[in-house]
Amino acid sequence: MKRFWKEVQVVDGGVALDGRPIRTPGRAPLVLPTPALAEAVAGEWRGVAETVDPRAMPLTGLANAAIDRIAGDPARFADGLARYGESDLLCYRAESPPDLVARQAVSWGPLLAWAQCRYDVHFEIVTGVIHRAQPEATITRLADAVAARTPFELAGLSPIVTVSGSLVAALALFEGAADADSVWTAAQIDEQWQAEQWGEDDLAARARAAHRAEFDAGVRFLGLLR
Predict the structure, then answer these.
(1) Looking at the predicted structure, is the pLDDT value of residue 35 above 90?
(2) 131 neighbors 191 (Cβ within 8 angstroms)
C-alpha cells in the first residue's frame, strides 16, 4: 500500500490517518489500551516513506494480532503459549563439553529457581534432548499464569516465548525478574557456543538478527502496556 496520508494523530485511543481511524486487517477498530502504545503505533505510521512495509511496523502488527487473532478466544491462544512449558529450553542441558554445561547452569539455573519459588513448582532437568514430562502441577500453574494475561499482553509475550523457546524466561521477563538482554543471552547460549566453535555464516547471522528484532518488538510492546 502506498502512503496516501499527510497527518497521523492519536484519537480516542486509536490512530487516525488524516482524521480517518485505522482499522485492523479484520476491519476492527485499532484501539490501543495505553496512550504510550497508541503513540508508538502512530510513530510507526508517521515513519512510513512511500510504501507500507509491515516488517518495519512490528508494534502495529502485534496490536493487530491482539485484536484480530487473540481477543476473540484468548484462552485458546494462551494454551498454545503455555505448551512451551512442557518442553522448556531451560530444562534440557548439554552432556558436554564442560564449558557449555557450565554456561547453561549459570544462565538457566536462576531463571528456573525464580519460577520454582514464584509458582511453587518443580522442574525435571534433562541431560540430552529426549523429552521428559514435567509434573502436572508445574504445567497447570504455568498455564494459569499465561491464561491470566490480557490479549495485548499475550500478543507481546508470543514472540518472546517462541523466539527464546522458554516460557519460564518469558514470564520472568514479563514480571520483572529478568531483563531483556539476560533472557536473550540465555536463549542464545547453544547457538552462540556453536558459532564460537565453527563460526557463523551470513545466513545464520541474518536469522539471528531477525529473531532479535522479533524478540525486541515483543519486549517493547509489553513495556508500552504498563
Answers:
(1) yes
(2) no
